[in-house]
Write a structure and sequence with these properties.
- The chain is mainly beta.
- It has 2 helices and 11 strands.
- Among the domains are: 94 residues; 31 residues, no CATH class.
- Strands 1-6-3-4-5-2 form a 6-stranded antiparallel beta sheet, with no helix packed on it.
- Strand 9 and strand 10 form a beta hairpin.
- The longest helix is centred in the first third of the chain and has 13 residues.
Amino acid sequence: MPTEWLQTKNNAADLLAADVGAGDMQIAVSDAASEFPAGFPYRLTVWDSESYPDPGDDPGMEILEVSSSAGNVLDVTRGAEGTGAGEHASGDAVRLLLTAGIIEQMQGVIGSHDHGPGGDGGQIDHNILGNYEPDEHIDWTDASADLKTTGHGALGQTTVTAGTVLGVAERFGQTSGNVRGIAVDTTLEPAGPLTGSLRNYALSFTARWRSSRNGSPNGLLYGILGNTETAAGATGDLFRMSAIRASSWHYGSGNVGQVDVVYSLLRNDGGSTQDGDIATGYNYFAAAYTNKASGRIGTRYGLYVADITGGGAADTQYGIYVEDLGGAGSNTAAYLGGDVQVNGTIDATGYSSGGAVGWSGTFTNADGDTVTVVGGIITDVS
């Protein structure tokens, strides 16, 4: 709920119109309507101002909290802020002063909204972040769960035609350690057996095209656009640059059925009666660009599969494994447009040409050498 602020008003001063007993829960003043705030609650200080010009000098001084009023009669809670509920005489001063309680309330609200590493911002109830009316500022699908905006219109801005919705731009000058522009750490700790599909997305991005306009050739969608760059004029060397680095780490003692460090799925699926072609699909498109007058790329790998490292064991390794492309009109598992260099054994199992299994046997070539062929592949010349 929104904070019930203590009301204030400048120079609010009045006098008691009748004596007040120690147990009375109402007090009468001379002119409450014009002197004190119209809203509630607010706190009043009562003391004998004729004997003690400074209220702090009066041992019988009392702070009362006013919850409502009827004319000049105020409903009060006695002995606020550690003061004692005592007797007061008609004509005693009644004033709205700045008290420690008002300041402490402000400090408490400010402190509870501290979302820094040492703050307690995590304890804030979603409902007190300004959402006084549904859809006034922020749309809560569930006030105890997700914070979800309904667009800039819900935040007071009528139209967004271009720009950045959420942006982080920081400069770091540290010389060691890790720097993270955005760090997301989500942990799944099921309280019981899994009853259905359970997924944990540390980051989930969707870029959606929704238009009848012709987006070709200028319309582009990037689910994730990762850039790393060296600033122009930066003369320092850098060990490595990775636009996107994906890692899957198995620390637990339980077994993992399959690990996909990068899983790329190209999907042409209408889901209903929708039609639409994909002209050309690349699960991985490795492009490189160089346009420096003198700077060069030493060696460029379209795909580099590094060997397995570490002290653990692995049963079988496939650097590149291409399944039978049964759903395609023509099946070319691998197309190599340049020279091919092989450093290892070629397994020609299942080799065929024109539907016929490759020939196996030996023959003598024009140089008098014996040529051994297995499955259509020359395996020895002697």
